[in-house]
Design a protein that fits this description.
The complex is a heterodimer of chains A (about 260) and B (about 350). With about 260 residues, chain A is an all-alpha fold. Chain A has 11 helices and no strands. The chains are: A mainly alpha (about 260), B alpha+beta (about 350).
Chain lengths: ~260, ~350
């Protein structure tokens, strides 16, 4: 038998416990979403009927649709602005003040940002709706996108930009054919992150959505349903969201790894 | 004004630092020109002014008679090979080389033919589909060279072209650079801190120090007739003996009159003599100074002898060519005599 290193054994045990702590609740939830009885107390057999009920629920479907619209729109806005912001920051003189200002929306508690945005919209006499959620999500997503793209730009050899200009390219052509393709993995990873952050964001959306089913997002819908207890339908929704998020995280990590290689 | 590239009184300041200070020089068509100097002497800034990446504070750049001082970098018929090569990492070798031609609007068969021809010129035809990260340092250098050459610029600028290569590869690439320059007939302007590289490659060298031209001359002139101590010290190995010109002869304190060329005005001066021009003998006959062998370094063929001379702070270095009667039997502590021909020494007045 191989003599095992006791430290290694301890570390592995620790790692295992951390994973159990993190994932057992989620695994329980996934299991329950397939429970026939719908009760959290007893397993009565495998069933996908809750998923069927979910699809048949128009409120959930419209909320999911709203969330997709918000996530896609805020991702597009924040990816464009955040990428340009990152480029500008890397180009300009290093300033800790500017850095702090850019990072602030990531750090400020969501509830504070939510109240601030709501007050701001009210001040402007703006009516609320899906577009106000889109703008609000873009606010914090720009910060995340800028951060992710900047790490990519840090290892970016600026002489390739000069090389492109030296070879006769305009600045726009250089951006399109050299800069953007080289930083693309970082930009895509940033967009995926922005999308994930937006699709399950609750507090800010809740404050800036205004009234009515027309601007109810997916997390808001779940919150509304959960007030009457955790139903098996919610377990099913949660399972779908977990699967989807997991897929996005894997995708973004894979892209980042390729970027580094 | 027959020069292809004419630089007139270029000055470039960065804040309080004057990187390039009123530099003027001309590069002829088909010439291999080197800008040589230690780091921080302004050579890269000067190159970037020529390429169009820096706007000079004063002075003008003329190319083939036209003033290009205000012309943007992407409109100058000049290409730069970057020190880091700056290859586009997401493009293949072919894509990198084709890029500049695509910017001219070239495409199809013409483009393919020109890229293929240029890749053959740098012996990279077999690597056309590789990406830069699949190439070795020397191969990347060739791609960078091809990319800069493919547009057939009037002047090709090269920033420390061989700096990143190891010694063996560097020597091989020196020969290739020279061959490419002669084959294409394009004027090359190389920036380097490596005096050996400049001497080997260039037809003419501008030696820079602190933003100014110290000497602009052929390699031989620069080696044989340095104008001051900096030039003498920077190029090759040099022995210096401090003293003064008195009664039209060179006098060193404690050593007396030493062989030196005539025609230099009286006053403090230094005598400079190359190690290979120092004659080392065992007999005092007709010799200038006596010394004691401090050590000898075997260089593969020649021997470098370090001779301590009384009244001199640093030992005099003599290079003994292969076959020199003393080269095999120099012993530490041995008494030797040193001499040289008067016209092979240089008197420096600064």
């Amino acid at each position: 038998m191989i003599a095992r290193d006791p430290i290694r054994l301890w570390l592995n045990t620790h790692l295992g416990l951390v994973y159990i702590f993190l994932y057992v609740p989620i695994l329980v939830l996934i299991a329950l979403s397939f429970n026939k009885s719908g009760m959290p107390t007893a397993w009565t057999g495998f069933s996908t009927e809750w998923y069927g009920k979910l699809i048949a629920n128009p409120k959930i479907l419209s909320a999911a649709g709203n969330s997709l619209i918000v996530a896609v729109a805020s991702t597009i806005i924040s990816t464009i602005i955040g990428t340009l912001l990152a480029m500008g920051l890397e180009e300009g003189k290093p300033s800790p003040w500017l850095d702090a200002l850019v990072a602030a929306p990531m750090i400020i508690p969501d509830i504070v940002l939510a109240i601030a945005l709501l007050s701001f919209y009210t001040l402007l006499n703006m009516s609320l709706g899906l577009y106000s959620i889109v703008l609000s999500h873009a606010v914090f997503n720009i910060a995340f996108v800028a951060m992710v793209v900047r790490t990519r730009l840090k290892n970016f050899d600026k002489s390739i930009v000069e090389a492109s200009i030296d070879l006769g390219a305009s600045e726009l052509t250089t951006f399109r054919r050299v800069t953007l393709p080289v930083i693309a993995p970082g930009v895509i990873a940033a967009a995926l992150l922005a999308f994930t952050l937006s699709i399950d964001e609750f507090i800010i959306a809740y404050f800036t959505a205004g009234a009515g089913q027309g601007s109810t997002t997916f997390p808001m819908q779940i919150y509304a349903m959960i007030r009457f207890g955790v139903t098996p339908e919610i377990n099913a929704i949660a399972t779908i969201v977990v699967g989807f998020s997991f897929f996005l995280v894997l995708l973004s990590q894979r892209l980042n790894r390729e970027a580094v290689a | 004004m027959s020069a292809l590239l004419q630089i007139d009184g270029i000055t470039k300041r960065f804040g309080p630092i004057t990187a390039v200070d009123r530099i003027s020089l001309g590069v002829k068509d088909g010439e291999f020109f080197a800008i040589l100097g230690p780091s921080g002497c302004g050579k890269t800034t000067l190159l970037r002014v020529i390429a169009g990446f820096e706007t000079p504070d004063e002075g003008h750049v003329h190319l083939a008679g036209a003033d290009i001082t205000e012309l943007k970098a992407n409109r100058r018929p000049v290409n730069l090979m970057f020190q880091s090569y700056a290859l586009f990492p997401h493009m293949t070798t072919f894509g990198n080389v084709a890029y500049g031609l695509e910017m001219e609007g070239m495409g199809g068969v013409d483009l393919k033919a020109r890229v293929t021809e240029t890749l053959a010129m740098v012996r990279m035809s077999d690597f056309a589909t590789r990406k830069p990260n699949q190439l070795s340092g020397g191969q990347r250098q060739r791609v960078a060279l091809a990319r800069a050459l493919v547009k057939r610029p009037k002047v090709l600028l090269l920033d420390e072209p061989l700096g990143a290569l190891d010694r063996k590869l560097r020597e091989q690439m020196q020969i290739e650079l020279k061959r490419l320059q002669q084959d294409t007939g394009i004027a090359f302007v190389v920036v380097t801190h490596d005096q050996e590289e400049a001497l080997t490659l260039a037809d003419r060298i501008a030696l820079l120090d602190r933003g100014r031209i110290v000497q602009l001359a052929t390699p031989r002139e620069l080696y044989d007739k340095p104008v001051n101590r900096f030039a003498a010290d920077f190029i090759g190995l040099m022995n210096f003996i401090d003293g003064a010109i008195e009664r039209s002869g060179f006098e060193a304190p404690g050593l007396g009159r030493l062989p030196a060329p005539n025609g230099v005005a009286d006053g403090p001066a230094a005598l400079a003599i190359r190690p290979e021009r120092v004659r080392l003998t065992e007999s005092a006959e007709g010799s200038a100074i006596q010394g004691q062998v401090e050590g000898a370094a075997f260089l593969g063929q020649d021997v470098m002898a370090h001779v301590a001379v009384p009244n001199l702070a640093r030992p005099v270095v003599a290079r003994l060519a292969a076959g020199h009667p003393l080269s095999a039997k120099l012993a530490r502590g041995q008494q030797v005599w040193l001499n040289w021909q008067a016209d092979q020494a240089v008197i420096l007045k600064d």
